[in-house]
Amino acid sequence: xxxxxxxxxxxxxTKTTPVTGLVVGASRIAISFLFxxxxxxxxxxxxxxxxxxxxxxxxSFPGWWGSVLELAxxxxxxxxxxxxxxxxxxxxxxxxAYFTVHAPMGLLPLQNMGEPAAVYSWIFLxxxxxxxxxxxxxxxxxxxx
Length: 145
Description:
6 helices
């Protein structure tokens, strides 16, 4: 009699703890709150785009539309509504800003003043991948279904 023993297969799983959801949620709220101010600068708030209260001209591309997307995406991410699509959109907006505005001025983000755009792009991509964490309207809607 022959007996075969199948090897145990292990699957890669990511353990999440309640603290993980809390940290991700708190980070999402803080980062989207700060990013909302970045969007408001395009409309002349908080010193504007020139430090003198100047905003981008109404309807101009990409400045005005970028500010609209930044502000709307920041609000959606802040409350956690459609957070993954909003995070993907914001990641793309910041990647576009980096490659079209900053990268032509120099190779490295520290040389071309594009470090905030690069960091925001990667952070928003992370939120798109891991989700909104706690305190999100998305989670509340999911629980009710």
